[in-house]
Request: fold
Amino acid sequence: VKGKTRDASVPFGNGALMAGGMGSLDGPDELGRSGKHRNRYTVNIKGNESVVEKIAAGAVPVRYDDPTDISTLRVLIVRRSAVDDPWSVPKGGVVEGESPLEAAMRITRDKAGVYNSEHVGTLGWILRKKRHKSIAISTFILRVLELGNVSSVLHERSRKWVTFPEAIDLAIGSSNSFTIDALERAKRSKRVLEHG
Reply:
């Protein structure tokens, strides 16, 4: 895959990078497979390159019930109600013209009803395979400032505030590896541990 590494402020349609020095993105380049063109992206994570077929964004939405007490830190998890999906943190695809952070904020609004949030930390790329497709998910910590309704065009969604251990237990119970990784990284992040 050819292409040059692009600046972190460039929107996805022009080859976005994740801010914070956690990785970079080259591409897309069109590679033919059985007569079909597929986008491919080279993600550079701390010097290790991986070629992926999809770029996504995810967020760990957090709040403090009491900003002076770290034990009151909560994470917002969501699921589609109609299909008995597992509880997870919001994630989804990055669309042309938006940065991964903009995508994470949009996805958190669409899937969790978070109308206003503040970027408080960058967790880096999390790599996953889904149905034989490799995906790089640029992941962020967002402090929730305002909640609204939770619905999407396709499915009604449920949401709930839980502690980090409760969220990890729910994710382990459903074998949701992305959510487990994102929560573990957020839990270790100094940005989350800074009060409110």
Q: What stands out?
A: The CA atoms of residues 56 and 92 lie 5 Å apart.
